[in-house]
Amino acid sequence: MAAYKGHQMNPDKFEKSQIKIILLVLPLVIITAIPIVFIFFHAFKPMEELFAFPPKFITLHPTLDNFRKLMKASRSAGIPISKYVFNSIFITVVVVFGSLLISTMAAYSLSKLRFKGRLTIMKINQIALMFVSCAVMIPRYLIVNKLGLVDTFFAQILPLMALPVGLFLIKQFVDQVPDSLIEAAYMDGAKEWTIYLKVIIPLIKPAIATAAILVFQQVWTNIEASNYYVNDESLKSLAFYMNTLASTSTSNTVAGQGISAAASLIMFLPNLILFCILQRQVMNTMAYSGIK
Amino acid sequence: MSEKSLLKKNKQTSSVGRRMHSNPNGYWFVLPYALLFAVFILAPVVMAVVLSFTNFNAIQFPKFVGFLNYINLITSDDTFMKFVLPNTVKYALIVGVGGYILSFLLAWALANLPKGLRTVFALILYSPSMTTGVAMAVLWKILFTGDQTGYINSWLMSIGAIDEPIIWLVNTNYLLPIVIIIGLWSSMGVGFLSILAGLLNVDESLYEAAAIDGVKNRFQEMIYVTIPCMKPQMLFAAVMQIVGAFQNGMISTLLAGNPTPGYAAQLIVNHVEDYGFIRYEMGYAAAVSVVLLLIVQIFSKLSNRLFGEKE
Q: How far is CA A52 from CA A48, A209, A213, A264, A278, in A?
């Protein structure tokens, strides 16, 4: 019998055999990281380094000039940047909490309550994972328009609340909650609402964290809503504003590049920080992400 | 139903029995999600299908035209047949299928590393997909600036690969490859994480058993043990990958405008945008988007064939 050497999946510590793998992966990791590192450097470049020729990748004298100019640019446009920041934070907070509330409720119901149509709803949601949302921009606009949501905050909130992949991941996670726990709660006289709050929610925190990240990413960087559903400048989101700034100022001016790099960094950082904080929960949730 | 009568009922029938029967509270819990889902996700798709059979300019009421839009798409839309479709197929194969294989291989490699290093690598590989391509369009515009002050041009010239700066975002030869590279760059998304988690959760004893049964090397192990064990994750990742790939296609018009120079990087999502929001031929745009949804369906059917649980 061949001696089983012990496979190296998920090893506890560093071994020599891993060097080969690291050498294979490292170049790709570095290539992936370069554009992101570049944005960091570029955002902090002073004017003379932005104009430097040949262009330098690394920033030698970091400065906050670009961020300062970003603030100034917005002041001259009539609406202060703080308004866009407020809009974006407001929209993001409402959508993330709203979305988590409705998806966890639906997940609990689809996973643990028996009623007619349950399987159909699940099936439809699963198919909806495949919908490419930008393909149906037009009909969605028509619906938002018909509902009279144009030029309201609702236009930027309601269409983003239902996220099929969020529900899917949470539901898979609720499936892992043992039925006996729920039976016990029923025995104690608990109703569904109590079970949802006291049993389900505390047990599915990793899935909630994961869905939160996914929803956050969708909302925080969303420009479609501001672009198509909102004409009132004072209701638009930060992402939209950053995008217009970027597309008007980068077209040719080198000075604009620094400003738009600063803008991109502001859009990117919250995602990165959130993911760093919650990555353990995400991996935990992903373990149950399979489609059966 | 009051709390008392519920309790009474609870005592009469076993709690298991009650849960197995129709529970109307289920509807209440699923209702808010179902409502928003129906209005903003399902209805647009249904409407797209309906509109695709009409002539609609966004002002007058849509006029039913049967299959005319689809017939036009196949027979008289030269741009679609000559540029959009081939571009889309190339893009989908490289970014969708290629990106999927790449994310599996990378996840597999990472699963063989200790936790600390793995987490750092996974974070870096995942980070591009955190922001939609849209937010990063600026970054690529700076890197691919078309004169000698552009970073890529300057670097290529300094190592002697090119003599003159290349106008990347206008040159029809380079536009599609650039969009594909950006697509691959940002394709280590949720699917990648799902595969990684799946790999880490394969039962260790299976590898032992496989070794005893004569599985000799890591490659055989991957084919005979790992992949069959994590089919559900493979399927989920495949769906996420292909949808993400098409979604990211929007970047090409952000980089080079719509239509892209010489339609060089015009993908099907950009074609929809072109007809829908620029020419206001909504019926025709809807037909194109239905074709897009069908293409995604085909890809996911194929993945289902490969990784679906067979009964």
A: 6, 44, 38, 21, 39
